[in-house]
Amino acid sequence: MISITILYPIKSMWEYTDKVKDLFLNPKNVGEIENPDAVGEVGSIICGDALRLTLKIDKQTNKIIDAKFQTFGCASAIASSSALTELIKGMTLDEALKISNQEIAEFLGGLPSEKMHCSVMGQEALETAVANYRGEKKPIEGEEKIICKCFEVSEDKIRKVAIENHLTTVEDITNYTKAGGGCGSCIPDIEAILKDIWSIKAVPERPLVPKKLTNLQKIALIQDVIEKEIRPLLQADGGDVELIDVEGNKVIIALRAMCVECPMGNVTVKGIEEKLRELVSEDIIVEVG
User: Fold this and answer.
1) Which of 51-65, 83-97, 131-145, 204-218 has the lowest mean pLDDT?
2) Looking at the structure, do residues 23 and 87 belong to the same domain, yes or no?
3) Rounded to whole angstroms, how far apart are CA atoms 26 and 5?
4) What is the chain's alpha carbon radius of gyration, rounded to the nearest angstrom?
5) How far is it, in rounded angstroms, from Cα 186 to Cα 256?
6) What is the pLDDT of residues 249-288, one digit of tens each?
7) Where are the beta strands (DSSP E) in the chain?
8) Quick check: 24 and 92 in contact, CB under 8 A?
C-alpha cells in the first residue's frame, strides 16, 4: 500500500476545515511501524479508499505506544487517518475502541457529510487492528452478506454504522459507507435494512419488548425511546439529553442545556431510567457520563 505524500490542491467543492487542510498537507504519523504488534487493514484501492494502521502496544499496560498509517484516498481519508493516530496514542486498547467515527470528525472540526465514510474507515481500521492483536478471528470470506457489491459493503456494516450514527436515509448510509453510491442496485436493500432497524416501536403496555432483542436491536430501541419519548419532554422545558454509550444493560447519558445545572438533575436521570425500563428492559441502569 502506498502512503500518499504528494500535495494535491484541495478542491473548492468541499468545505474543509483548517484542521483537515493542515493534516492533509502535513499529515502526522505517516508510515509503518517496524515489527508492529497489531495491524488493521480496511478498504480497497479498487473501491477508492484503503487504510493500513499499525500499532506498537505495551503488553503490560495494553497502552498504545505508537500508531502509524498508510492510506490511499482523498484529503478527508488522509486527515481522518492522521487524526485517529493522534487520538489513540497513549490510550489503552479498551479506551481507544470507545472512540467513535463522530469523535474523529469532531477532532477535525467536522467533515463534509459526503466524506463521513473516511472517519468510519479509521474506526474500522482500529477495530481490525485490536482484533488482530487479541487473536480474534475475522469473518470468513463470503460469510458476511454483501449488500453493496460496488464498494463491498456488508449488511452488518450498514446496520452498525446506521445505529451508531442514527442514520435514517439511504443518502446518510452512502455518505458514511459509500453503499448505494455506485450503480444504485442495492438501494432497495438499504431501504429495507433501515426500515427494519427503525421500525421497532415502543408500546405503552407490557410485555414491551418482542421476545428477545439482539444487542443491536436493543441499542436501536434505546436510541428510539430517547429521541421520541424523552428528549421532546426535556426540550419543552429548555433541557436536553444525549446518549453517550450503551454497555450491556448500562445506559450512559449526558444532560444538556438547562438540565446541566438543574437541582432536580437526579430526578431527571431517575425518570429517564424508569422510562427505559418501562419501554426497553427492566434491568436497565442509567448513569451520567
Assistant:
1) 204-218
2) yes
3) 9
4) 20
5) 38
6) 899 999 988 888 777 778 889 889 988 988 888 889 999 9
7) 38-44, 49-58, 63-72, 146-148, 153-154, 239-247, 250-257, 285-288
8) no
Same domain, residue pair 37 and 112: yes
Q: Write out the three cell numbers for 51.
A: 487504510
92 in helix, strand or coil?
Answer: strand
d(CA 153, CA 178): 8
Helix (H) or strand (E) holding 211: none
Domain count of the fold of the chain: 3
All three cell numbers of 1, joined, read 500500500
Give every CB contact of residue 203 below 8 A, 6+ residues apart in sequence: 279
Q: How far apart are CA 1 and CA 117, in angstroms?
A: 19
What's the pLDDT score for residue 143? 67
Residue 29: pLDDT over 90: yes
Question: Rounded to 5, what percent of the chain is helix, strand, coil?
Answer: 45, 20, 35
Measured distance CA(122)–CA(104) in Å, rounded: 8
Answer yes or no: pTM beyond 0.85: no
Q: Could you report the per-residue pLDDT of 160-211, keeping only the tens digit for each? A: 999 988 899 999 999 999 999 888 899 999 999 998 888 754 434 444 444 5
Determine whether 183 is an active site residue.
no
Q: Please tell me whether the peptide bond between 207 and the residue prior to it is cis, using omega within 30 degrees of 0.
A: yes
Backbone angles phi, psi at 59, to 5 degrees: -70, -20
For residues 159 and 251, membership in a common domain is answered with no
% of the chain residues with pLDDT over 70: 87
CATH number, domain containing residue 236: 3.30.300.130
Determine whether 47 is an active site residue.
yes
* Residue among 118, 148, 186, 259 flagged as catalytic: 118
In a domain, 228, yes or no: yes
